[in-house]
Amino acid sequence: MRRAVIVGSGSAGRRHAAALRSLAPEISITVVQRPESVQPREELQNLDVSFASTLDEALAVSGDVCPADFCIVANPSTLHADVAVRLLRLNSPVLIEKPLAADLLSAKEIQTAELQSGNQALLGYHLRFGDLLPELRRLVHRGVIGAPTGFSLSVGQHLGSWRTGTDAAASVSARAELGGGVLLELSHELDALCFALNCTATSVTHCDLRFDGAPTDGKVETVAEVELVTSAGIAGSVHLDMVADEPVRDWVILGTEGTLRVDALRSTIRHEKPDGTAHTIAEFAGGERDRAERRLIEHLLELSNPEIHPRCTTQDGILALAIIDAARKSYMSGQVAPVEQHVRQEQ
After folding, report:
1. Residues 81 and 151 in one domain
2. pTM of the complete model
3. Is 344 within the bounds of a domain?
4. Sign, CA torsion 77/208/133/141
5. Within 13 Å and on the Cβ side, how many CA atoms surround 159?
6. What is the pLDDT of residues 135-177, one digit of tens each?
7. Residues ≥6 apart with Cβ < 8 Å to 112
8. Do residue 25 and residue 162 come from a single domain?
9. Domain range holding 222?
């Protein structure tokens, strides 16, 4: 029987467990949940999982049984490195929730462990596995709006509405020691930008941060306004917040021959032409988040074939963290901050 180990029982861990059970009903799932955790167990118990209080306990198997055929790291990002480095040594595919880590150094440690082990790590930027972002990338690549000239991505929702039935102030998102704040927690938009435009970022030209307006520890960013330039010389902005009364998720890509405007909450993409006409060029049914989750876990399962490579990698995770690092430096200095260019060193 195949085994999966999920480290973390929060909303991400529970979502992954549900998808895994649906796709592989026969698989044995062990969830690592700390004894002091306040995360509910009922949903996981209904999925017929077993629990372990430590990773050692989860991996302690007898005889020739494989400790884990698939691993998922879904604990706070400040704890990712220690767990991911250990799991990568098992020679089983590892899914790491976004962000890859809470800082660049830890992210590089994870990538080094991946390369040294010869194992494969998949990063959980689920928008890549949805409908909208791949379609946006395809439309840009097709030249529907000519050459891209600018961009604006915005996502916001009050922290109190992020996770129903939980104390927002005690959540990972609200606490610095657990990797909270919008730059890390909403880094999906940074990855989406690079994926849609098939580029990296070279510099953050300006960054404004706020630390109020949401029930946090007062140390994490509640709003981030990041202006940056891509490797193609395209300038634009990314807005991230956990204070908005009404949820929003809009992406705009400007081009020499028009504009693509994504309303991610309504799953639509509109094409605005220079002559002022506009039409919906793509529209998807509700439930995209669930479809993205299913595709993500399907991809994890197929990574047991060494000839298949992750569609979202540790290198992608390092790029997102490099942008975050540059944004913080720009905020502190009030100056342009270069985005560190990290080249993956194959072993």
Report:
1. no
2. 0.96
3. no
4. negative
5. 29
6. 999 999 999 999 999 999 999 999 999 987 789 999 999 999 9
7. none
8. no
9. 128-285+321-338
